[in-house]
Amino acid sequence: MKIIIVGAGEVGFHSAQKLSEENQDVVLIDKDPEKIKRITENLDVQAILGSGTSPGMLKSAGISEANMLVAATDSDEVNLIACLLARSLNKYIVKVARVRNSEYLEEEGLFSQDLLGIDQIINPEVEMVQTIRNLMLVPGASDMIDFLDGRIKLVGHTIKADSPFVNRQLQSFRELGGKVLMGAIVRGEEVFIPHGKDTLQANDLVYVVVRTNELSDLFQFLGVKDEALNRVIIVGGGATGTALALSLDKTRLNVKLIEKNSTRCNELVEKLEHVIVINGDGTDKDLLQEENIREVDFMVAITGDEESNVLISLLAKGLGAKKTIARINKSSYIPLVSAIGIDIVVTLRLSAVRAILQYIRRGKIISVAPLKGEHAEVIDAEALETSDIVHKPISELKFPKGALIGAIARGDETFIPHGESVIEPKDRLIIFALHKVIPKLEKMLTVKLDYF
Q: Which fold has domain 2-122?
């Protein structure tokens, strides 16, 4: 596919990086020479210095033959105009826009085909806030993704060094049979689809598929205590920190927000009713101790500087904070953080990547969720009548090594499959897949040519 990305910021850069790794034809446009330089030095994509709202620039980037346009600048207006121009220059192109202004998002029908004609809206900040809130509500989770309208949860759980599961083979967990399925393990920079004889190790991030109504059984088995959430400290009053504070402002939680910029603090005080705003430095040990950090249930470090977020989280953990969440964007950092004591990592780019992958995957794909480290995906797909996977027991499918069906939904029923389970047309499948086997998997999910 040919994909044009407008905006070489955090979301645009990482989207281009992901797509180039998949050998997609990517063109990236930005007005900032420094950002273009960064692209040309680090990525194997075409980078053009210019404006994504220029018809001439879009034409020179190849808009007429492009399959998708991703407008991911920091300006909603620029993104919307870029999509409008793309629609005018290529009526078949798929348009994905980053939009943050809540007024736009609340305007019913604004993005419909009759008006702006935008196929997918991405709002990484909102996605991150929702992720953080979900993780606060689910004890013991290092990552969590909902599928099938919340009926199935994909839960990432980090195996601690003192866990009784260290050095245990997966096939020994027979008491979980039929309730959960361990679909992927992230170990350092490696991601693999496990088998029964694989052994868990300390700091493994294990992804488990579980029906939502059996989530409590999973955490009881894992020995995770359901502790009440009372106190939260947020460090960073930028767009994401503010959105998180606003989302917690009406709750009964004791929430404090630490921000270095005094002007920004004054603005936050005007917006927030119950959240206490503190003008200070989140790396100040004395300040954290004054705020009784050892009684805090969650310390959330989401400043724009990921090195500061790591430092703040480690400092808070050392001073007694029960759990830490750090915003980290560099994928090379992600495998390291659990080993050095940070509980949970969140990143802006994943929501954008998920939205884009949904359109470039073949077959009837409902959604795609890259896992931490982004070397594997969980795909929500519908089984088509004419694909190679229906009317056969799973054990007889020539499923590629490195892919695994984690759950099946049939009507109102959801279940964890076994070898004798038969996939029926229109079943919804939750599939774990390593990147290297996705082309083979897509072929199995796609309509067979002899159908025509």
A: Rossmann fold (3.40.50)
Tokens of 2: 């040919």
Min mean pLDDT across 143-147, 377-381, 409-413 is at 143-147
Helix (H, G, I), strand (E, B) or coil at 39: helix
The domain ranges of the chain are 2-122, 231-347, 351-451
pLDDT digits (tens, 9 = 90+) for 47-68: 999 999 999 999 999 999 999 9
> Which DSSP helix (H) or strand (E) runs through 95?
strand 94-98
For tokens 């207006």, what's the residue?
A: 77
The model's pLDDT over 14-26, given as tens digits with 9 standing for 90+, comes to: 889 888 888 889 9
Which class is 231-347 in CATH?
A: alpha beta
Which of 393, 396, 397, 389 lies closest to 420, judged by CA?
Answer: 393
> One fold for both 2-122 and 231-347?
yes
State the fold for domain 351-451.
Alpha-Beta Plaits (3.30.70)
Distance (Å, whole) CA 182 – CA 312: 32
